[in-house]
Amino acid sequence: MKKKLLYLAGAIVIVLIGCAAFFVLYGPKERTVEGRTMNQWLKVLGANSVAPTNILKLKQVITGEEPDIATFEVPISYNLLQELRNNNPKLDIPYRLSLFVDDSYVSTVWTNNAINGNCLLVWNTIYNPPGPHQLQAELLLGGASGTRVLRARGPIMPFYSSNVMQFDSFYSGFTGNKAILYARVPKTNVSYSIELRTFSGKHIKTITGSTTNGVIEEHWNLTDERGNKFTDDSAEAVFHVTLLDGGTNTVTETHVQKTGLFRN
Question: What does pTM read for this prediction?
Fold first, then answer.
């Protein structure tokens, strides 16, 4: 009986060793692009010898364009990141350094080069609602035919957007007959004026109104103050919003925000 138990135990050990060896040889391996894992790429791309865990950490940079434009520094070398795709013919790796707001990808973000060589993520906040948000930087490497995709996100950064309005990119285009000037505001008792002008600053027309449901929606017939037809391919809408206190009807906040209009 004892011999049978010993044989059985020995057989189980042999099977376990075999399974472990099979897993090492044929089991799932950590993904790589050009022979490097994401952690190894983060070490390569890291600027100023930062710890790999901090390479995707966001830090806000005040530029004076707030609150419409919010800028964040990420300690990844801008030049090294560009070399992945643009400057090294032997290393053509598609990449995307992007910003996630409340766990959703934001398309209104672009990447710039900081003075110190790091990457800047510049976020046009006007298409997101005002209030508290959770931000994360994400780096994606690979994705072209025949390459694997590596993805990493940095730590969450709490952020409060003090925008008074939220625009919708759906209304940024206009046809030959009309444009819809649209924005949402967080309060219901609001008066506003919308100045339409060319991108060079020439005045076209001003539209005034008020809303009690938190939505600004004006239909512009593409004419100026004198009734002349506007024929340019783009214009700028500047929203001057006054938030009124419901009890005393006094001004509590005034804000100016602008969005672009482009002919479809």
Answer: 0.73
